[in-house]
Amino acid sequence: MKTAMLHYRVYADDGSSPPMPEHFAFVQGGTVAGITVSSFYIDKYELTQAGYQAVMGSNPASGYGVGSNYPVYYVSWFNAIEYCNRRSIQEGLTPCYSYSSYGTNPDNWPAGWNTNENNHTNVSCNWTANGYRLPTEMEWMFAAKGGNQSQGYTYSGSNTIGDVAWYYYNSSSTTHTVGTKAANELGIYDLSGNVWEWCWDVYSGSDRVVRGGGWGSLAGNCPVSYRYGGHATDSFNDLGFRCVRVSP
Question: CATH fold of 22-246, please?
């Protein structure tokens, strides 16, 4: 696959909406298994290490698969929020996230904003902004189920986990290049397995939702119905994210 994260397009200054990156999938809104969402765009791939480094200037991944097209990991929920806003700014889009009264530019956020797990409640989202953001839990589930094309699979794209997911029994205890297992009904990869993915929603207390299971997960943690949570400051060797954008 192409490392599309590294390429940024120049947009015409005519007031039109910038095009989506070529590797984003359109998810038509609807209702599946009681989940109702509006249309949105989602990255077909978990955010790669090259994509993260292009925006943040560093690659936190080490020891569990390192390379341009491997998913980024060792990233906290706070890291994901910052990435989304910095990428939005870099591409001339309107950032989705604000921190307390400090605005949308992470350069202006106070020292220590991302070191206390309880600070996650200071982050708010502008749902109409055209920048990058984390999926809501319902958006993630809807996409993982295959949207309006859902076949009702247990895992994202199959009832056979090994067809679509890197998990405990086939991963050799490491991440793998994104998009190397089969895609789901919408052409989206790795929504089961490889790395867990941060979502926007609160799980409980100081925790935010993570979904999908990772390379170290047993099959029981990888169904599209399984949910879990982590502190906003957590960063693990099997935890990453992918981005979404609103439908223009």
Answer: paralog of FGE (formylglycine-generating enzyme) (3.90.1580)
Rounding to the nearest 10 degrees, give the CA dihedral for residues 87, 92, 95, 101.
110
pLDDT of residue 3: 35
Q: Is the dihedral of CA 48, 244, 107, 240 positive or negative?
A: negative
CA 240 to chain centre: 7
- Residues with Cβ within 8 Å of 208's Cβ and at least 6 positions away in sequence, in order, are 77, 120, 198, 199, 200, 201, 202, 229, 230, 231, 232
pLDDT in tens, 141-151: 999 999 999 99
C-alpha to C-alpha distance for 33 and 19, rounded to whole angstroms: 31
The answer, yes or no, to whether residue 19 has pLDDT greater than 90, is no
- Where are the domains positioned within the chain? 22-246
Q: Are 165 and 185 in contact (CB under 8 A)?
A: no
How far separated are the first and last CA of the chain, in Å rounded?
Answer: 26
- Pairwise CA distance, residues 161 & 225, whole Å: 14
- pTM higher than the cut 0.90: yes
Across the range 100-128, mean pLDDT stands at 97
Q: What radius of gyration, in Å, describes the C-alpha atoms of the chain?
A: 17
